[in-house]
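Working notes for the structural subgroup meeting. M.R. asked for a predicted model of this chain before we commit to crystallization trials. I am recording the input and output together here so anyone reviewing the notebook later can reproduce the run.

Input as submitted:
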Amino acid sequence: MKTSLMQNISIRLYGILLALIVLSSCERDEPETQVPTIPGFPVNTTIAKLLEKGEGVLEGDPIVWGFVSASGEKQGLPSLAIIQGDGAAIAIKVEEAQLSKFEAGTLLFVKGKELTIKREGSFLMLARADGEALDANDVAAHIGFGAKNQKIPVLEMSVELLGEAQHQQLVTLRDVEVTNEDLDGNFGPSGNDSQKEILLQDCAGNEITVVTPKNSAIASVAIPEGRGNIMGVFTINNNRKELRLLDAKAADGLTQIRCAGSGDITLSRAIAGIIAAGEGSTIPAGTELKVVNISTIVGELNGGITVQDASGGVHISGVTTANYPLEAALIIDVGNKQLTTVNGRLAISGVADADIQIAGTYQYPEKITSIANMTGENMSNTLVKINDVGIMLYDNFATEKVYRLRDNSGKVHLTLANASGITLTANTASVTGYFARENGENKFFIRQQADVVYGGTAPDPDPNYIIENFTASYAIRKDNGNMIANGKALYYYTPQDAIYDNYLTAPTGKWLFYGALFWKTRTGDIVNPTAVMIGASAVNTTPPTAGFPDNGPGYIETQFAFDGMKRIRVRFGSNASTASTYRVEVLLSTNEGATWSSLGITTTPRTVLGTADFSPNIPRTEKVRLRLVNQTPEANGRWGALMNVVDITVEQPD
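Returned structure, recorded in token form:
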């Protein structure tokens, strides 16, 4: 394609469309980051979601937006205007007299009330409920006109990868040429009186038909016989791929040597086409990727970069992450390189820094999605935005932190190196980044602090994520449900005490407290007030004192069962005792407490908050009870080394 053809065309790529980015001196607009609106047209859906409803009368009052890409008889679209946005396009059936309002580049808003989706020939369109075109009154009722002279989103595609996802969108096809088998290159008696059809194909033999209506403004334009790029509206008609040219310059790019006349043609491929070859495949010699870097060193902890074109994304391993700025437009020579996995993640290996050229910058518009759709659809390694996400610290290691991101559709983990300088807080936010499956686990990657914007609606509580910190209001005492104050402490309860019940009712369920109590604020405590267990060295008097167990250790135990157990974490520490280290044992029972199995003992120094963390991975079909025991052996008076239980977190399997 000539550079002059591409000037003033905005390259806006949406969704998981199959395309390459034009990396040249072409002008571009910065992509919209917010859904546009005008008074009376509050956008509540997308064209893609509207098309999912299929043909028929629309229910409710859907409101969508899009750019007018083509309209009217002069562009071969009698009684039609096409709008596209957010990765999809739809036609609007309008009386010819009204189409002068639908200028290319106009931001258009459409109310779907009392409209229908119907198909006529190549086009899927919005029309009146009776299938007729919108007249002047209908246009006023259903159409809102926004800003004009907007740059039109154009997708650069290969013929091979064109499909339903690009139907009715404005595309530039690369590396095509006129065949020697024109289907019908003339009007009149020798051909179709209403349109002419010319067959194009790429160097691999993939075909598409240029359809030019007789009454269009470019009916007399001849298509050059060279190879190159051509622009128009793509449609599918009875499984045949068709292209409608919009102006006389649309085919100016067909100036290169024809496929048959060149033995050294550079193969400019889309990522989706390379991935389709499968892991272990070798990419053909001469293959280039024209892509955008959507990653930074923040996410790429193992090195390399993640790149995207409109067809998808892929990881490039082995290159120097810091060499490539975020949003750098790249040309990568991937010829003879391998499609493999690195850390369990699909990647192209064998690429060196010398194989990569930086050719400007490009800001990709993120696709708004949910966690479930992101991890369930083919969005791996592509830029997405997820709203209304709850952020929670999941693991805290010496050099990195792992956060759990969750919306109402699912959850995914995010790992941040401490050296990144990015800070996250437990809150609700919108997050922008990309997803990949690494070592069998779904992971999300952000690139910079600005990728996290706090605010939104918090997701519903996760029923499989249970936290108990014993700070709520509890009923313990048998007679009136109040805890008994005993000087410094809220008293502990044991089976030997006939007056008080030793069962504590918490929001999570009923707990047995044996040699355990609630202590008020005490200097040197890790956390106050909280549940406290007596030490393993605790010894009762003879005869036993009321309310005191026979001997230590103290423990707390669920009288209810969890639905399986994926992970258990217990934060614990000293209770102003003098022991040098504190030891908590975590035990589980799958037979209602008849027998117990130990997961292990975790030790922490005095005054240091410790975490016992185990992943038993017991399936959801098993009922699991939990017991925590203070196994600290050091003596510290009759109660032994008292231990605080700060909180308990149980993660059940999904």
